[in-house]
Design goal:
single chain; about 650 residues; alpha+beta; OB fold (Dihydrolipoamide Acetyltransferase, E2P); nine-stranded mixed sheet; eight-stranded mixed sheet; 12 helices; 31 strands
Length: about 650
């Protein structure tokens, strides 16, 4: 705040005001009795209450007196005084906890406002107010009512209504139009009031209006109707583990805790992320988005967890930007609604509210029988070739690809559950092109991306066709981050956007090693053996049944090997090896190509190596000059000084 400016002076005034109110309330509690000084005190009896724009409005009757021996029901009512409309701030209303028939003493400096063309005066500045309990009957009634929740009617008043900006004829036309996405303010006919308690409350269609009218503490008797654009899981914070309801463990993502989330959009185009409860298993997320995405839902019992902006949540807003602009016209606050309104010029949202549920409240009511909303935007599926040609940065993309090889990040300083997973994928658009684009693309799966058990188990066994939804493309990389979903089945609702999504029919081809090959990729290698690194070569026996590489000497016969996993003597062990060979490759003639060979090999030259190793002897000279066919390799490193390429032979899924 500017020193000595109006804002600083106002802030000081508000602080003094809060201190004065707290001190006055403390005095009232200490004195027990009602303050004896009655000069200027306004005594009213509450007849009716409601809430409007976070202010509690009480329709009251002024009392001439409040006798100490009578209850509030017996208080004398002045017939000459008009009805008063008393305004209580939210903090004052929470302190009074008043209800109809209560008697309130309002101490100075209260003010009376006489409105033009209105018969009822308005009483403001009611911070110094006290509820009076007179007589045994009132005390008993107060204790009884204290156990009951007081439901106060809330009037939702929009700014457009306040300034009379809405055109009634356009509103009627909009509600009757089939092409509009405005949420109807009522529960559908197929919802029974007994089955859906939310139907008793008021339904709104604006997230921003709900936040402004209900505040951050929570929505009580009002709900908002929105469209579910995306369903996904987010890793929960460390502190969330203590908030898991009951003993039911949440969904596990590589050892992390996760919770179900919804990205919703209202009739005005505003987005909000709703963080719901934890899931009992990793397989539950698929059924949620198949049942919920594109459907209308009503939110109630929400509270604001955070108001975030683009600078704070780049990942969230990259997803929001992929859903912007809306596919159909949306409402514009303060303007008459026109079905021909152009939505392409609307500015994208600059902020978003993160909502969470309140314990014990009714949270989300999804109408699964309703048709898909016109506002819903299914993921636009593109071919990998088209994605690689996108010029933008931090663009969300969805594609359908074959996973050929999986590799875990090998940094030992990072815990296993926090390491990246690299998936090397391809599709029809990459396999049927010339050398302008690579035939295989590396997709990085960050630790923040939630993987279901079905995905991890399937990819550990064989090559699978996987649907990547809302992955992030930028700086030449495809990354699966928060809010990215991997599926084994294509969603029912998705648009192909003209991409060629034909499935692979023939064998998969890899790019051959050449001058354009980059580190952290896979390629095919052919060349001639020019050297062997004998210092790093070693071999070890493994069990022929289970593949266990930690065999022991048999206790009964020290000449035999014993497998502790099979609990049997190994009759026919398989000899495995590691060996580094140097190749001369025509496609990379200026580089030294070093290939690390692991385990058991059955390709050309390495069949000979296995045979020689099994005899416990081999001649290096016999391998020099041997031609090596196409080997599938992972590129570890490429250096220019010295000019060397480090490869490791791999087996594709």
């Amino acid at each position: 705040l500017c020193r000595g400016g109006l804002a600083e002076r106002l802030c000081r005034l508000q602080n003094r005001e809060r201190s004065a109110i707290s001190f006055w309330r403390h005095q009232c509690i200490s004195d027990v009795k009602v303050p004896s000084d009655k000069s200027g005190v306004l005594i009213v009896k509450i007849l009716e209450m409601f809430e409007e724009c976070t202010i509690q409005v009480a329709i009251c009757q002024q009392l001439e007196q409040s006798p100490a021996m009578h209850s509030s029901e017996d208080a004398v009512i002045s017939a000459g005084e008009p009805i008063l409309k008393v305004l209580f701030a939210r903090e004052t209303a929470a302190h009074l906890k008043s209800r109809p028939q209560d008697v309130i003493h309002i101490y100075p400096p209260w003010q009376k406002l006489l409105l033009k063309n209105a018969d009822v005066p308005v009483i403001m500045n009611t911070y110094f107010s006290q509820k009076v309990l007179l007589g045994q009957h009132s005390e008993t009634r107060e204790k009884t009512h204290g156990l009951m929740k007081m439901l106060i009617k809330k009037n939702i008043v929009s700014l457009a209504q306040t300034f009379r900006l809405d055109d009634l004829d356009d509103e009627l036309h909009q509600e009757s139009s089939d092409n509009q996405v405005a949420c109807a303010p009522q529960i559908h006919n197929n919802c029974d009031l007994k089955q859906h308690p939310l139907a008793w409350s008021t339904v709104n269609d604006s997230l921003l209006e709900m936040v402004e009218s209900q505040g951050a503490v929570g929505w009580r008797e009002v709900q908002v109707r929105v469209v579910i654009q995306r369903v996904y899981c987010l890793p929960a914070r460390e502190g969330y583990r203590s908030h898991v309801q009951g003993n039911k463990p949440p969904m596990s993502n590589r050892g992390m805790f996760c919770r179900l989330c919804l990205l919703v959009q209202d009739a005005y185009g505003m987005f909000s992320e709703v963080q719901l409860q934890s899931l009992s298993s990793a397989d539950d997320i698929e059924q949620y988005f198949r049942r919920w995405e594109g459907k209308f839902c009503c939110l109630a019992g929400m509270k604001i967890l955070q108001r975030t902006t683009r600078g704070r949540s780049l990942g969230l807003f990259s997803l929001i930007d992929s859903l912007w602009p809306p596919v159909v016209p949306v409402k514009v606050p303060g303007q008459s609604q026109d079905s021909e309104m152009v939505t392409t010029n609307l500015p994208p949202p600059s902020f978003c509210y993160i909502l969470t549920v309140q314990s014990g409240e009714i949270h989300v009511e999804v109408d699964e029988e309703e048709q898909i909303s016109n506002l819903y935007q299914p993921p636009a599926v593109h071919g990998l070739k088209e994605i690689l040609q996108i010029d933008g940065c931090n663009e969300r993309c969805s594609f359908w690809a074959q996973v050929l090889y999986l590799r875990l990040q090998t940094k030992h300083s990072i815990p296993i559950n926090q390491r990246e997973i690299w998936l090397f994928v391809t599709d029809f658009t990459l396999q049927n092109v010339v050398h302008t684009t690579p035939k295989v693309v590396a997709v990085s799966v960050s630790a923040s991306c939630v993987l279901s058990t079905e995905i991890t188990e399937a990819l550990s066994v064989a090559s699978r066709l996987v649907f990547f939804r809302d992955a992030l493309w930028g700086n030449g990389r495809i990354i699966c981050v928060e809010r990215t979903v991997l599926l084994l089945q294509k969603p029912l609702l998705c648009s192909a956007a003209g991409a060629d999504l034909s499935e692979l029919t023939g064998p998969v081809r890899l790019d051959e090693l050449d001058s354009t090959t980059q580190a952290n990729s896979i390629c095919a290698v052919r060349g001639t053996v020019v050297g062997v690194n004998e210092s790093t070569a070693f071999s070890w026996p493994t069990c022929g049944r289970c593949g266990n590489g930690k065999l022991e000497l048999c206790p009964q016969d020290r000449g035999l090997l014993y497998c502790s996993q099979c609990s049997e003597v190994v009759i026919s062990p398989i000899l495995k090896m590691q060996l580094e060979v140097f190749l001369s490759c025509p496609s990379r003639s200026q580089s030294t190509v070093k290939v690390k060979v692991w385990h058991e090999m059955s390709f050309g030259l390495f069949v000979l190596i296995n045979v020689l190793l099994s005899l416990q002897s081999y001649e290096v000279q016999s391998m020099l000059g041997k031609e090596v066919g196409l080997l599938n390799c992972y590129v570890h490193s490429i250096t220019s000084h010295p000019n060397c390429v480090g490869l490791e032979e791999i087996v594709l899924l």
